[in-house]
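tool_log.txt
---
The assistant was asked to compare two proteins side by side. It first ran the structure predictor on the initial sequence, then on the second. Raw inputs and outputs are pasted verbatim so the downstream comparison step can read them without reformatting.
(1)
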Amino acid sequence: MAHSDEVKAQVMAALLSGDGVSEVARKLNLPKTTVHRIKSEISSEKLEQVQTEKRERIDDLLLDTMSANLSALSRIARASSEPSYIKTQPAESVAVLYREVASTTIRLLEAASAAGIGEAEVSEAD
């Protein structure tokens, strides 16, 4: 079934903004096959560019979230290491907090290592 130029334009605009086929089909109440057919009319270079931009946006959001979480973890670690704080807390609570901070730190270091983050090149003079 042929669709109007307006519908095709809506589908293309949604796809080029980063929406997936299923999402576009649901939003516009169209069969997925129709959306796939219209998608096939878009150049592969343009679709690759959209996917790259989408991944970059996700990467930026992840980095922002990780940065905020690391800052919060750092503030928690500093505040909870103050003698005035430790003296007012049950020993078990302090132990649980430190175990969680240590566990989170280890998981972050493992993830960073797996992603190659923080690896500096070592020169032969070192």
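(2)
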Amino acid sequence: MTNINRVVISGNLVRDPDEPRQTPGGTLMAKFRLASTGRTKQDGTWKDKPNYFDIIVFGNQATSIHTHLTKGSPVTVDGRLDWREWRAQDGGKHQAVEIVADSVQFLGGGSQPEGMAAPVSKRAK
């Protein structure tokens, strides 16, 4: 059986993206948090329910995200889920599931900054 690990999600940045930093291997990376609102029925009425996702971007996208996006910016992210586990300094065990972005599409209008993904419909296959 083939495993598929693909995520496509649209939403708005919860806060300004982190300042890009270098990984130990020298690659630029940045993180941001995305809110994507779903709807759920509670007590017979529909209510909005925000879902929050941590996104990691690498390379030129890390710089572009930090330069061009701010809290509230709408984006679509295409990527994969990545689970990680670590121990804190106090010995506590922690884990997280993050989305590692392959591409981030700005939805605020205008042209894409250099290094960002073109709209999916315009990409060469």
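---
observation on (2): The chain has a mean pLDDT of 86. The chain has one helix and six strands.
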